[in-house]
Design brief:
152 residues, alpha+beta, Aminopeptidase, 5-stranded mixed β-sheet
């Protein structure tokens, strides 16, 4: 199946942003150890702050002209280089494990090259093993690991 990224306009972005925010909050709760309220507050704050970035782009992932997910990227400094940062990639649960996420990430690499950026980056929660396997299979390497131990 042919996968494409379609840039969204302001109206569609306004509809998509609450979905992005909810998904981010859910991941923080599931994998990051945040309480539901803390995750929602952080997701709202981070999303609002990052969307101000004029280099940010929100895309719909489409397969055969049907929406199957979304991708949110932006430029930022990471270490010694400006990179295309993946803030969020999401594939609808009903169509996962069909290669849509992989294809969208490869298209994001093309976007980075188009922008003249030498590197891509992202954060992934430690418990999200499916995503970590996908990123590793595409050549992403870990550059930092945050660990914690909850005490009673």
């Amino acid at each position: 199946m042919s996968v494409t990224l379609r840039s969204v306009g302001a109206d569609e972005a306004a509809e998509l942003i609450p979905e992005v925010e909810r998904g981010y909050a859910l991941e923080m709760e599931q994998y990051g150890g945040f309480t539901r309220d803390a995750a929602r507050r952080k997701a709202a704050r981070d999303t609002a702050e990052l969307l101000v970035d004029q280099t940010a782009s929100l895309f719909v992932i489409e397969a055969e002209s049907e929406r199957v997910g979304h991708l949110w990227v932006g430029e930022r400094e990471a270490g010694d280089a400006r990179v295309l940062w993946i803030y969020d990639i999401f594939v609808d649960e009903a169509v996962r494990r069909r290669g849509f996420g992989r294809d969208a990430l490869l298209l994001a690499e093309e976007e980075a090259r188009r922008r003249g950026l030498p590197r891509m980056g992202l954060n992934v929660f430690g418990g999200n093993e499916g995503a970590r396997r996908l990123y590793r299979s595409l050549g992403y390497g870990e550059v930092a690991v945050v660990m914690r131990k909850d005490l009673e």
